[in-house]
Specification:
The chain has about 500 residues and is an alpha+beta fold. The chain contains 10 helices and 26 strands. The protein binds adenosine-5'-diphosphate and magnesium ion. Magnesium ion binds next to loops.
Amino acid sequence: MAVSKAVGIDLGTTYSSVAIMRPEGRPSTIINREGETLTPSVVLFAEDDQVLVGSTARRAAATMPADCAQFVKRHMGDPHWRFIDSRGREYRAEEVSALVLRRLAEDAELALGEPIRDVVITVPAYFDDARRKATLDAGEIAGLRVLRLINEPTAAAIAYGLDTLASGNVFVYDLGGGTFDVTVMRVRGGEFEVIATDGDRNLGGFDFDNALMRYVADQVIEQGGPDLHDVLVLEADLRDKCELAKRQLTTVDQASIFITAADQNFRIQVTRAQFEEMTRPLLDRTEVTATGVLDDAGLTWSDIDHVLLVGGSTRMRMVREMIQRISGKQPVTGINPDESVALGAAVVAEATAAEAAESTGAATALSRIAVRDVTSQSLGIIAVDKEVRQNTIVIPRNTRIPAKHERTYYTVEYDQRAVEVEVTEGDDEDLAYVTVLGSRPIPLTPGLPRNAPLKVTMSYDIDGVIHVELFDVTNRTPLGEFELDRPYNLDRAEVEKARTELATREVQ
Ligand code: ADP
Ligand code: MG
C-alpha cells in the first residue's frame, strides 16, 4: 500500500523549517525557493491581496514595517490579538501562522514534486491547550491535515536518536530567535515524559541583536552621526547588519559593521569579547532558568544523561561554554541546532503516516513514540483570607497530565448560602498576575457553621478540560460540579471561514 508522504514542520517564532524522511531512512530539511533550509516566520501583506513569506518579507520589513507580521507565535492562543495591516485588514495569529505553513508546504511540494497534505507540527513543551489548539487550527486553515503535534524538545531528542535509549534523562536548552525554553524529559521504552519545563518567552537571539545594535548606534553617535534608532529604515538596516555581525562573531574574533547615514560612512568594529560582555546579563538569565528547571525536576546534573542544545542562538560559543561549565557535560552534537526540531518532526511524521496507512497496525519502532505532558501553568481557585481575595493553587505547574488534586477551603460566615468558584491560571497569590479562566456560583447546604470545610477537587485532562467539584465535608454531600471550556479558540465555522478566505490569497 502506498504511503502518502508526510512532512515535519518546525513552526518557529523567528524561523521555520520543513523536513522529510528520505528513502535512505534519514530525515533531511527541505530547501525552500530561496535556497535556504530556514524560512523566516515573517509575513508581508502587500497590495492586491498578495502575501509574501520568508526572506523577501523579512527584507521588506525595513521599508514596510506596518505590513509585516513577525513573532506571531507569541500570540498563538490569545483571543484578542490581531495583526492589522496598513489597509486595516485584520488577521488572527492562527491566520498569519497558516500563511507561513502554506508557504512551507508549497516549498516542499516544489522540491519534492508531489502534493503535501499530511504534516506533524512542533510546539514548545510549555504550550497550553489553547496554544496547541491554535496551532492545529493554523494547520487546518492552511489546508493541511495535522497528524499530530509534538513537543519541540521531544522532536530534537528524536532527531538525535535518543528515543532508542533504554532509559535516561535528557536536558534540552533551546535558545532561538525570540524565546528561550528549558525542558527536562525522561525517556523510557521510547516514550518521552516531560518532567519539568520553563523558559522566558521574551528572550532570544533578538535581544542579543538589540544589545549589539545599541552599542553600534552609540558608536555612530560618538563619531558624529545621527541616532540610528530614530529612523525606522536606518534601524532596520542596523538590525540586519548586527544580526549578521553576531553570526560572524560565532566563528571569528572580530567583525566590522559598515553604516551609511546622513551621507556619512561609519565603520564600527566589535570583538567577540566585547559582544559577550554586553550580552552577559542575557546569558546569565538563561543560566538561572536552566538551573531552576533542573531543581523543579528534582534532579541534579549527575542525573542528566544527555544535554541537548537546540535553537540557532546556541551556536554562540558562550552558550556552549556556560552549559558545559554548569553541567560538567559535553552537549550532544552532530545536527544543526536550528534544524533538529524539524528533523525529529519528520521522523515522527513518517512513523505516524505509516501507522495510519497500515491496517495491520504492525508497530514500527517509532510508532511507540508517545509524549506525556505536564501543566505549564498552575491552576487554582480564588479564596478569601481575612477579607482579602487571593489566588490559591490547586494543581501546581509541572504536574503530570492527567492530574487530579484537591484542596480544602472554609466558609467565611454562618449559614453562607453560596460560593462563587473562580478558577485561575497562574502562580502568583496576587490576582493582578493571574488569569481568571471562568467561574460558577454553587449553592451551599443551609445551616453550615462559619469555617465549615468545603473540598474542591480539580482535574485537568490531556484535552485541556478543567473539571471542578465542590464537596460539603460536614454533611458529606456533593454540592456541584462544572467543566471549563477555555474560550480562547476559534470554533469549527470560524476555522472553515478562515480557510476558504486564505485559499484565495496568493502566497509568494
Ligand atoms: P526560532 O526562534 O524560530 O526557533 P532558530 O532556532 O532558528 O529560531 O534561532 C534563530 C536565532 O538564531 C536568530 O536570532 C539568529 O540570529 C540566531 N543564530 C543563527 N545562527 C547563528 C550563529 N551562527 N551565531 C549566533 N546566532 C545565530
Ligand atoms: Mg525553535
